[in-house]
Amino acid sequence: MIEKTPFYPFKSKHNTAPFRIIKNEDYLPTIKESIILAKKEVESIINNPNKPSFKNTIEALDFSGEQLDRITSIFFNLNSAETNEEIQKIAQEVSPLLSEFSNDITLNVELFKRVKDVYDSKKELNLTKEQETLLDKKYKSFSRNGANLPEDKKDKLRAIDKKLSQLKLKFGENILAETNKFEMLITIESDLAGLPDGAKEAAKQLAESKDKNGWLFTLDYPSYIPFVTYADNRALRKKMSLAAGAKGFKDDELDNQKHVLDIASLRHERANLLGYKTHADFVLEERMAESPKNVQKFLNELLEKAKPAAKREFENLEQFAKDLDGIDQLQKWDGAYYSEKLKQKLFSLDDELLKPYFKLENVINGAFTIANKLFDLKFEEIDTIDKYHDDVLTYKVTDSKGDFIAIFYADYFPRSGKRNGAWMTVYKPQYIKNGKNSRPHISIVCNFTKPTKTKPSLLTFNEVTTLFHEFGHALHGMLANTTYPSLSGTSVFWDFVELPSQVMENWCYEKEALELFATHYETGEVIPMDLVEKIKESATFHEGMQTLRQLSFGLLDMSWHGTDPSDITNVKAYESKAFKNTKLYPDIAENCMSTAFSHIFQGGYSSGYYSYKWAEVLDADAFEFFKEKGIFNKTVADKFKDHVLSKGGTENPMTLYKRFRGQAPKPEALLKRAGLLK
Questions:
Q1: Residue 442 and which of 120, 141, 468, 500 are 20 to 30 A apart at CA?
Q2: Are 621 and 636 in contact (CB under 8 A)?
Q3: Cβ distance 230 to 192 under 8 Å?
């Protein structure tokens, strides 16, 4: 029984996860026991002899399954940040169990009847706005997930959900395996021409760690990005680029083509079963955008503005490459390389010039200082709680009165057990229960350049904005102040969730903010103002091409999920059709985006990739407000904290945004910032 499991209930201070004592073999029995316990909690709601009420049904349901949520959050977060074959095998076993449990809840006739009774009488209940939102969300979680289906169709839904949970896991495992599998060992030093010293030293160190002579490069971003950006050897850039673009597309045991087709088809079948035309129709019903038609309109309007600029930029870049090196046809493996050279020429600015001013520890402290100036938060590094890897940093977060706000974990460096990219996650949500405000445990995970024997971790400017982006998500989680866990922190409409993250990136471009943390790691000199000006000037460099790239991903996502995919047999051909209006570079036959598009086929962004651009409209408009009043203006910061960061999903996001801003967002701020307004 559950009392025999070695790590739950947690006995640690602040109820933090006891990573040190958890063994892999503990997960499966503990999750199984936690499912049994959660089922008992639900059964007690169903069997309550009293008339269904908000408290005994809706509220009780939201607080049920807490133990299961805590255990699975640890398990799946580690499956992304510190996985191994054993954990992946357990995940394949656990995912269908959780999918089945979820279906057991949403397809339970007696439970739905109680929820519906409360929902049908909501006008007489005198609920708060947050309670109204929770009631609406709970009712929809049943009605949108098959509660009204006949039994045979419920069984079909269960089968689809079980299969999808396994397919998504397998998709991600294949990508991680592909990333770890590729290595490019260079033994001739002249082949490193153009590469920064830091990149060469890191490659040398990596080779030594694997008992190899030379310089070792991988598809991990801190290795891959510098290589394709700076290496003069075009053939080797091509080799790296082709390897990155071919993940999941090699007709081998790690191939994802069938998984893409199966996931898209099952999602469509599921949507049809629930009465929706497409998966996108199902998803977007619960988004700010509301419908596929609105998303297509939004993406195409931006495409109309960005495409002429993107084409001009591409032609200029192609001409530049031709003039410089006689390149007749610009290829994908040339893009980052010649863009960087052109940027250096136009602005006398390159990442290697900036990196000495962005020592990781200084950037972290800068993010903390800015959070303190805006939101009165204090971050104290502590060593009194468990962590899952020695690289992880742990902090206790308090407010200006010294009150406990959150636990914060930060994990910055690549490892073989960690997937690529950067993300924020939650180990414990915030909620208020029995009059006590239970505070959250928040984590950010990144893949930055590791320190070498001679240099600390020095970030590119892009990595600086990535850190601020994830830290913005973390603030959304940390400052949560809602009653119910399912409405807390980042539990908001998916096309609203990127606002806090993207708005934080803006401080990276402001002199007043940069002066707080951008100091040379050797001399302590504050970043020169001419460099700050160049950062701002170059902010819109190739913005047309960058926008087109983001729009192409959003349109590809909508193409997979906004139509009936049952007739698609060739993933690559279908993708090429979706990319037709956004294509700049020649197509590469060996490469495919969809087979490695983890955001939409493994993560939660299916029919939602457009939300990055959608949120850019919000964040540009929001930061315009800060700039009008001062980027550290406390009144504006308090409004943002009170109406956006702390409110989670308690109200419609547009209502919350208007309360902060005093008006609806206007796209002009984004177009102006991107240099796309004529």
A1: 141
A2: no
A3: no
Distance from C-alpha of 219 to C-alpha of 223, rounded to nearest angstrom: 6
Nearest to 77, CA basis, from 426, 314, 383? 426
Per-residue pLDDT tens digits for 263-291: 999 999 999 999 999 999 999 999 999 99
Residues whose CB is less than 8 angstroms from the CB of residue 80 and which lie 6 or more positions away in sequence, other chains included: 418, 419, 423, 425, 445
Burial class (CB in 10 A: 0-12, 13-18, 19+), 518: buried
Helix locations, 509-570, DSSP H: 511-514, 529-538, 543-561
pLDDT confidence of residue 537: 87
Q: Is the pLDDT of residue 2 over 60?
A: no
The rounded distance, in Å, linking the Cα atoms of 389 and 56 is 41
> At residue 678, what is the residue type?
K
Pick the CATH number of 2-106+108-148 from 3.40.250.10, 3.30.230.10, 3.40.50.300, 1.20.1050.40: 1.20.1050.40
CA dihedral sign, ordered 83, 87, 92, 95 = negative
- The CATH code belonging to domain 356-533 is 1.10.1370.40
Phi (first) and psi of residue 233, to 5 degrees: -75, 105
Residue 600 buriedness (CB in 10 A; 0-12 / 13-18 / 19+): buried
Place of tokens 């200029």: 316
Q: List, in sequence order, every beta strand (DSSP E) within 145-244.
A: 184-186, 215-217
Amino acid occupying residue 306: A
The contacts of residue 1 (CB under 8 Å, 6+ apart) are 33
What are the strands, taking DSSP E only, across 472-533?
none
The rounded distance, in Å, linking the Cα atoms of 450 and 460 is 12
Q: What is the pLDDT of residue 6?
A: 57
Is the separation of the CB atoms in 658 and 137 below 8 Å? no
Residue 123 to residue 130: CA distance in whole angstroms: 15
Sorted by sequence, the CB contacts under 8 Å of residue 553 that are 6+ apart come out as 593, 597, 599, 609
Across 49-67, average pLDDT:
97
Q: Is the model's pLDDT at 487 over the cut of 70? A: yes
Q: Which residues contact 153 (CB under 8 A, 6 or more apart)?
A: 146, 273
Q: Are 645 and 476 in contact (CB under 8 A)?
A: yes
- The token pair at 591 is 């490469």
Average pLDDT score over residue span 569-582: 97
**Amino acid (one-letter) located at 19:** F
Q: Which of 33, 463, 470, 543 is catalytic?
A: 470
User: Which pTM value belongs to this model?
Assistant: 0.89
Q: How many separate helices (H) and strands (E) can be counted in the chain? A: 27, 9
Percent of the chain beyond pLDDT 70?
99
Decide if pLDDT at 480 tops 70. Answer: yes
Q: What are the distances in angstroms from CA 461 to CA 273, 367, 450, 653?
A: 47, 14, 15, 31
Looking at the chain, which residues constitute the CATH 1.10.1370.40 domain(s)?
Answer: 356-533
Domain with residues 149-168+256-324+540-678, CATH architecture: Orthogonal Bundle (1.10)
**Residues 396-446: tens digit of each pLDDT:** 999 999 999 999 999 999 999 999 999 999 999 999 999 999 999 999 999
pLDDT mean over 173-196: 97
Handedness of CA 640, 643, 649, 652 (dihedral sign): negative
Query: Mean pLDDT of all residues in the chain?
Result: 95
> Is the predicted pLDDT of residue 5 greater than 70, yes or no?
no
Is 315 annotated in the active site? no
Strand-pairing partners, residue 186, are 215
DSSP state of 330: -
Give the position of tokens 């087109």: 548
Q: Are 671 and 305 in contact (CB under 8 A)?
A: yes
* Secondary structure (3-state) at 677: coil
Output the six-digit token pair for 372: 């303190």
